[in-house]
Amino acid sequence: MPQSTDADRIALAEAWMAQDPDPETRDELAAIVEGARSGDAAAAADLADRFDSRLAFGTAGLRGEIAAGPNRMNRVLVSQGAAGLAAYLLERATDGTTPSVVVGYDGRRNSQAFARDVAEVMAGAGVRAILLPRLLPTPVLAFAVRHLGTSAGVMITASHNPPNDNGMKVYLGGEDAGSQIVAPADAEIAAHISRVAEGTTVPELPRGAFETAPESVVDAYVAETAAIAGPPPAQPRVVYTAMHGVGWETMRRVLETAGFDVPTLVSAQIEPDGRFPTVTFPNPEEPGAMDLSFEAAREAGADLVIANDPDADRLAIAIPDPSAEGGYRRLTGNEVGLLLGWLVAQQVTGADAAAPAADGGGTRGTLACSIVSSPGLEVVARAHGLDFAATLTGFKWISRAPGLVFGFEEALGYLVNPATLRDKDGISAGVAFLSLAAAAAADGRTVADLLDEFVERFGAFASSQVSIRVTDLSRIAGVMARLRAQPPAEVGGVRVERIDDLARGVDGLPPSDVLRIRLDGGARVMVRPSGTEPKLKVYIDAASAEGTVAERRAAASDMVARLEAGMRELVA
Fold first, then answer.
1. How far is CA 161 from CA 31, 91, 142, 281, 320, in A?
2. From the record, what ranges are coiled-coil (predicted)?
3. Which residue in 365, 462, 342 sits closest to 414, CA to CA?
4. pLDDT of 362 above 90
5. With 90 as the cut, is the pLDDT of residue 251 above it?
6. The pLDDT of residue 276 is above 80
7. CB of 396 within 8 A of CB of 182?
8. Residues of each domain in the chain carrying CATH 3.30.310.50
9. pLDDT tens digits, residue range 109-140?
10. Model-level pTM?
């Protein structure tokens, strides 16, 4: 909704303030308007940034910085989003039943206020609205959609984004089975939201009474999650951090129910705190985010570090490593995913890779991962006679794989219990990984030993990622266009065998702006724009099954390094 003059934007801002129920964002916007009126160029530019576009509703719902205006996260935008989602659900309810929604929220700034707005507005529109009893992890909300049999779920969270961000994540029940929304639902909901924003002010939206979910919902999640772990045969020494998020209360109950000892806690990060005071970014993947965990692990002599992100849908694992600075190394998302996939494959088939399923596979479940995650999961699936599926990035796709028994993505997301919920879950994955470590410890082995055994059985799978951050998004489009128009014949001196343009819907996948480069020797490079940040992302994978464990690792790592150098030249 672009406007041509400062006066137009000032008028829009005044209309926005008139409907904003939040005094903090009203006052914030009033100061900017006053500055723009007095000729302050920075204030005028700020208004343009806030009012010349609107925060888009997509398959990730809404997510952005908390501030006033349609291009920010605030109570006006959340109320409009709730009214649009309600209209969508009512439109779909053709059988005369009343649609329903369950709403959850984490410990970020404004999360509870946003959640109450969603529940009240949707109740006022005629949707049965149920609010979870307190701040809880995202996996509990995803579980509640299925457990309560609701038409939809809304989680107020920005996961591991910077402190001043928040978001609104949408799940659908019924035939969607509690998965996140995908096309065309996102566009249909967005159209309803636009109609609300254009035709109704927030004070005009009716508000109704919502229900509060009973504690039995949380109890059921705890019981079903704890059930994935048998009685621990050993008790590894564990350090746990919630990264200032909401994971610990629920994780503690699950661990106790499953019979595990209470871990050593990173006390400075264990309570919910939306300011995230001890980390630059509350994301276990970020450099420095796990420094306090490593410090606690050294003091405790820990065998394992378990970290959740702030809404506990992701999991990071670290293990002792004498060669690493500080004595501990965070495993990559691919390493954790491959070990968990191997664990689930053995559980499902009752057999190790040395004894594949007698039926030849395909009848007892599917291991799935995103197209940019390690190809090693397919090797595990085939060795155990299971199906394999590679999906587009995001658990909205992974969770929909037919016959799913396990899914993961390299960005620290894992689903080990798809019968319980249909989204990544850092709590259940943490318990599953702890069970794996406990079983190894009972046999006198470590997680590092398990990684070696994986390489010995299936080969070494090395991976790397290149992220190119830009200020001008056209640069990303230009690189993608150039790679399509002038496809490289080699990367880092390795011959290109084939380039698949996934924009054409390759392998039955929905069209996506991704290039897959196949190289001599089986290595692979994936290139795509980031879906959430102004970045071009390059994913590099190589494998080796020749020689000793050390030789396999070295060969795969050397190939990845060679391809990484070549790709940096190509996308520069």
1. 27, 33, 19, 7, 28
2. none
3. 342
4. no
5. yes
6. yes
7. yes
8. 460-571
9. 999 999 999 999 999 999 999 999 999 999 99
10. 0.94
- Within 22-133, strands assigned E span 62-65, 100-105, 128-131
Could you tell me where in the chain the CATH 3.40.120.10 domains are found? 59-213, 229-454
Instruction: Classify residue 521 as left (phi > 0), alpha (psi -120 to 50) or beta.
Output: left
Cα–Cα distance measured from residue 349 to residue 166, given in angstroms and rounded to the nearest whole number: 41
Mean pLDDT of 164-179: 96
CATH 3.40.120.10 fits 229-454, yes or no: yes
In whole angstroms, what is the distance from residue 223 CA to residue 102 CA? 20
Cis peptide before 184 (omega within 30 of 0): yes
Distance between the two ends of the chain, CA-based, in angstroms? 34
Per-residue DSSP letter, 162: -
What's the CATH class of domain 59-213?
Answer: alpha beta
What integer pLDDT is reported at residue 226 of this predicted model? Answer: 97
Helices H / strands E in the chain, number of each: 17, 22
Q: Which of 159, 293, 463, 544 is catalytic?
A: 159
Cα dihedral across residues 371, 374, 375, 379: positive or negative: negative
pLDDT value of position 473: 82
Cβ pair 476, 495 in contact under 8 A: no
Q: Is 159 annotated in the active site?
A: yes
Amino acid in position 20: D
> CATH code for 460-571?
3.30.310.50
* Bridge partners, 307 (sequence order): 241, 316
